Amino acid sequence: MRHAIAPLSLLLLAGAGPVQPDASLGKAEAACRPNEAGPALLVGITGLKDRKGLVRAELYPDNDSDFLADDAVLINAHKMFRRVDLVLPASGPVTLCLRVPGPGRYSLSVLHDRNRNLKWDKLSDGLGFGGNPKLGWSKPTAAAASVLVGAGPTRTQIVMTYLSGLKYRPLERK
Predict the structure, then answer these.
(1) What is residue 68's three-state secondary structure?
(2) Cα–Cα distance for residue pair 145/57, rounded to 1 Å
(3) Beta carbons of 46 and 160 less than 8 angstroms apart
(4) Alpha helices in 77-146 (DSSP H)
(5) 35 falls within a domain
(6) Model confidence over 45-95: pLDDT tens digits?
(7) Domain range enclosing 147
(8) Nearest residue to 171 via CA among 126, 110, 115, 123
(9) CA nearest 62: which of 134, 137, 141, 133?
(10) Is 19 exposed, middle or buried (0-12, 13-18, 19+ CB in 10 A)?
(11) Model pTM score
């Protein structure tokens, strides 16, 4: 009788200890290349509080169980996950590009990581989602945060929101 041996990654996820975050997960597949014509999402980001830190865009399957799920879990399950980090330029427009496996609907999150610790700090960092849903105290649904990507580069605009009082909202412009 043959015994199947579970891959090491599954053993780690099964309780052998916490999986350490890997900042490179999802990046190799996500990086757009110059003059590439395939499906991609061009994300313009507006409403930034300042130009500190970086912005991190992450693309997920368009379903609630996978949206904002742990990146290592998604990748080990062979599910689509893409991530791009961009150090904020001192001025000018902020646009990043994510390659996608094919045309379709995906869920998008954007983090303005002001201190570059690669974690969400709810009191200082900004959030944005595909479709720019109004945010409450729970995460938006995958459908509310979704974007439709065509056969070539597709543009979307994300308005960043920050905690103000007891709500996340876009910054007021004076």
Answers:
(1) coil
(2) 12
(3) yes
(4) none
(5) yes
(6) 999 999 999 999 999 999 999 999 999 999 999 999 999 999 999 999 999
(7) 23-166
(8) 126
(9) 141
(10) middle
(11) 0.80
